[in-house]
Amino acid sequence: MLTCRELTELVTNRLEGHLSLTERLTFEMHLAMCRHCRAYVQQMRETVHTLGKLAEKRVSQEACAHLVDRFRNWKQQ
Prior knowledge:
It is a single chain. With 77 residues, the chain is mainly alpha-helical. The protein has one domain (4-76). The chain has helices at residues 4-15, 21-33, 35-51, 61-72.
């Protein structure tokens, strides 16, 4: 059985269809029993759907470098 933390680490792969059959089954079993994770997965689906509607804009190199730095160091903060 997956923990909630393990499930959150697999959400992106699940939404993109990159889980094995065994991973999908354990993922879905956890969702069947955990309303909090069901809500989280639904929020992620809605976020992906909404972001997919946005027009592409150019991001300055400075802003891009800042974001990349923040993502690389997020666990250290």
